[in-house]
Specification:
By secondary structure, the chain is α/β, with parallel strands linked by helices. It has a single domain, classed as 3-Layer(aba) Sandwich (Rossmann fold), CATH 3.40.50. It contains 11 helices and 14 strands. α3 links the parallel β6 and β7. The longest helix is centred in the middle third of the chain and has 24 residues.
Length: about 375
């Protein structure tokens, strides 16, 4: 049986294997060429992507102080002017892709076959653009929600996804270093570990926001329209980042328990949306009792914890059902079709961001929709 705390805290795209042993036959299987296309954005607008290597010289690394100042890799997705001369972006680097295959576990070569839509270093549309910070699950990766990031970028947002170094499964830096996670699968003191991990993530998000809002180069950010979102532990970090920093006007939690943070017992004074697979969780119950501002919990029926990420698109091609016990697979991926899960997550995320950062009507957030009968409104506050 999968414990609910482990499911919500650990099952980022790179962390599902913390719940089970890898199959011994996996390493012996030969890589099989395949192409796994992520769903294209729902608008025909062009999307570019690039990576940034940022160093916070004012902060030693919170996980490995001997490593020196905190180093981060950040991926940006943005609306582009032209893409014809730019190559289609890889999902991640070859060495990180191989690490994901082994960790989940998937057949070798699966993640390398995933193809996003965005083009590498395409010229950006002039700003200023609203900014959305995007966080991965525990031992996950910045690429976990690429399909969602591309959708938001196509609709006019600058999306910045952060690899939280030493938390993320593997981070490859421009000089070729690959830094692996140092997090324990089962910490002796979960609460202390969660507080430490959330504190590091929030500091990362705040630093990246300062860096991006202060730039005057190819990307210009509208500092009055900044939001933060994340999957699993990234969702908890999003809520805590809002509590600590008023620059984050909205927060969105994709199926994350509100661990490592006082938010469940304090609430927030700005809008927070929960998109969940579970009907409820004790941290959500406490947050609902204390939320001061607009709030919603919307549950997607048939979803699993990883249905809000890109993994469902790679699961069958990568033979994930053959590597996992049936109950684990069901808990992580549910029964909803991958394309449908992505469509739902995109629609509700975009409606939320557009409503609070652009002032657009969002009736989708206020009750049942015939377009999306799988989504039920579990709780609301205006």
């Amino acid at each position: 049986m999968i414990r609910r705390r482990s499911l919500l805290a650990l099952a980022g795209l790179g962390g599902a294997a913390a719940l089970l042993p890898a199959g011994p036959a996996q390493a012996a299987q030969a890589a099989r060429p395949r192409t796994i296309d992520l769903p294209a954005p729902t608008t025909g607008r062009l999307v570019g992507t690039t990576t940034l290597h940022l160093v916070d010289h004012d902060r030693p690394d919170p996980f490995v102080p001997a490593a020196g100042p905190r180093e981060l890799m950040v991926q940006l997705w943005y609306p582009a002017r032209a893409t014809a001369s730019r190559p289609r972006a890889p999902y991640t680097t070859p060495r990180v892709a191989a690490a994901i295959d082994q960790r989940l576990p998937l057949d070798p070569g699966t993640i390398a076959a995933v193809r996003p839509t965005a083009r590498t270093d395409a010229p950006a549309l002039p700003g200023p653009l609203p900014l959305l910070l995007l966080g991965h699950g525990r031992t996950g990766l910045r690429s976990n929600c690429t399909a969602l990031a591309e959708e938001l970028a196509a609709h006019g947002y600058l999306v910045a996804s952060v690899d939280h170094t030493y938390d993320a499964l593997a981070v490859e830096f421009p000089d070729g270093r690959v830094v692996r996670t140092v997090l324990e699968d089962e910490p002796a003191d979960w609460e202390a570990a969660e507080r430490r991990e959330i504190a590091a993530r929030v500091a990362d998000l705040r630093f990246v926001t300062t860096e991006l809002t202060g730039r005057q180069d190819r990307f210009r950010v509208d500092g009055g329209r900044v939001g933060v979102l994340g999957h699993s532990m990234g969702g908890s970090a999003a809520a805590e980042a809002m509590r600590q920093d008023e620059r984050f006007r909205i927060g969105l939690n994709l199926d994350g328990g509100l661990f490592g943070s006082p938010v469940p017992d304090l609430g927030l004074d700005r809008p927070l949306l929960l998109l969940t697979s579970l009907a409820d969780h004790e941290t959500w119950q406490r947050w609902r009792s204390h939320q001061h501002a607009w709030g919603r919990q919307l549950r997607t029926l048939g979803a699993g914890h990883l249905s809000f990420t890109d993994l469902p698109h790679a699961a069958l091609p990568g033979n994930l059902p053959g590597h996992l016990p049936a109950d684990t697979y069901a808990a992580l991926l549910g029964t909803i079709a991958p394309a449908r899960a992505t469509a739902l997550t995109r629609a509700y995320t975009r409606a939320f961001a557009d409503h609070f950062l652009r002032g657009r009507p969002a009736p989708l957030l206020d009750g049942p929709s015939p377009r999306f009968p799988e989504v039920e409104l579990r709780w609301s506050r205006d």
